[in-house]
Design goal:
Blueprint (H helix, E strand, L loop, with lengths): L1 H20 L5 E3 H4 L28 H4 L9 H12 L3 H4 L6 H13 L5 H5 L6 E3 L2 H5 L8 H20 L1
Antiparallel strand pairs: 1-2
Helix pairs in contact: 1-9
């Protein structure tokens, strides 16, 4: 009986963790993504941001650089390419406590030589930011994995192993 109660508690905890892991909405936040540097106010000026868990240095930026070309930088092509690149990483980019968005934009500008603020000024869809569709979000672009799916798999595996141990 005690083992059944422990297993139930474990499964409920796993479900709660999985729910938190999948709570991120299907948007690239306008607040986090397009605020690359300076302009922060309040206490955050004194708080250092943690390093990004995703390494943006070795991603495939040709998704953007092959479609978004100057001198005119057509908004439909540039914004579509930006979303195609960035949506799979939205969980990392939207994390305000990390430097993911600034790291990503640094590499986009390094490889694409884009004018400052190009994507922030052109790519707008609403109050929540850029909408990432399920198709864009499910792309495992650039060899990167989405934190949400990998953490969900990890939680499931750990729960299964613990359940086997207590059975």
């Amino acid at each position: 009986m005690a083992a059944d109660r422990g297993l139930l508690l474990l499964l409920l905890s796993a479900a709660a963790i999985a729910g938190v892991a999948s709570a991120a909405g299907p948007f690239l936040s306008a607040d986090g993504v397009f605020q690359v540097s300076a302009g922060s106010t309040g206490r955050s000026l004194l708080q250092a941001k943690k390093n990004c868990a995703m390494n943006f240095e070795f991603q495939n930026y040709t998704i953007i650089t092959s479609k978004c070309k100057g001198p005119k930088f057509p908004a439909d092509q540039c914004c579509g390419a930006f979303k195609e690149f960035a949506c799979p990483f939205r969980d990392y980019i939207n994390e305000d406590s990390s430097d993911c968005s600034s790291a990503m934009f640094s590499y986009i500008n390094l490889y694409g030589k884009y004018p400052p603020g190009l994507f922030a000024n052109m790519c707008r869809e609403g109050k929540k930011g850029l909408a990432c569709t399920d198709a864009q979000s499910s792309i495992a672009a650039n060899g990167g994995q989405r934190a949400q799916s990998s953490s969900l798999v990890l939680v499931t595996l750990v729960c299964g192993l613990v359940a086997l141990l207590f059975h």
